[in-house]
UniProtKB/TrEMBL annotation:
Residues 128-196 form the Quinate/shikimate 5-dehydrogenase/glutamyl-tRNA reductase domain. Residues 10-92 form the Shikimate dehydrogenase substrate binding N-terminal domain. NCBIfam families: aroE (TIGR00507), PRK00258.1-4 (NF001312). The active site is at residue 69. Belongs to the shikimate dehydrogenase family. It comes from Rhodoferax lacus. It is an enzyme of class 1 (oxidoreductase). This is Shikimate dehydrogenase (NADP(+)). NADP(+) binds at residues 132-136, 156-161, 221, 244. Keywords: Amino-acid biosynthesis, Aromatic amino acid biosynthesis, NADP, Oxidoreductase. GO terms for biological process: amino acid biosynthetic process; aromatic amino acid family biosynthetic process; chorismate biosynthetic process; shikimate metabolic process. One of its GO terms (cellular component) is cytosol.
Amino acid sequence: MANQFVMAGVMGWPVAHSRSPTIHNHWIRQYGLQGAYGLFPVQPDRLEDAIRGLKALGLAGCNVTIPHKVEAMKLMDVVDPLARRMGAVNTIVVTPEGALHGFNTDGFGYLQSLRDAKPDWAANAGPAAVLGAGGAARAVVLSLLDQGATEVRLINRTRSKAQALADEFGAAVAVYDWSERSEALSDVALLVNTTNQGMHGQPDLDIALDRLPTTALVSDAIYIPLETPLLQAARLRGNPTVNGLGMLLNQARPAFQAWFGVLPEITPALHQAILKTF
């Protein structure tokens, strides 16, 4: 591997905002590897062409981000069982024989970000409330259930979307109306926002935290800005908080290992490199 130039990248539409190149190229330099990680803006109607082209271009694989995660799964030769349960892939590995293997490291990244923020965190410490019912919510809910969560409260603006997830994931997932979002926090140990509310350029998440125990961990999948209005409000009332950057950094580690053969570390220097991009 040492003398072979390895290429990977991230496909999305749009994709210019992605911090993945900063992360992976930092690791390539840190470990003295020959390689590069780039941005691939791929329009939805060209996704199949782009994925089929990975092998022809000699890429080791790529990350897949919004809006391609679900469609990309259909184009894989082999889908990892966890990715199949999540209904999406975020990492493609091209085998030496040229087969496309699809993985999903989002759940791993999310759980590790919680442990990094709160080393004694446990999924069975109490109910979890998850806002949203899209791909990120799916990864989070499945990961929590796999770790032993006994109650996940799913709260989404469109109730039917949340209900569809609950029907699939079983009795531990309870659906609440969006109008009940503040009341549903009364005894939770973890609050997770997977919606885009609070993201740069989007409206703030409208939720009252009065009923949330101050011991609850509050987590946001958003990392632009690093502290969303939700996380700021939680921090000011004494809750431990974790932003989406930890999930982004941690989901990148197994992908990097699959392509470059090294399991990279998340160092203060990497954090600094990311912070300079904001």
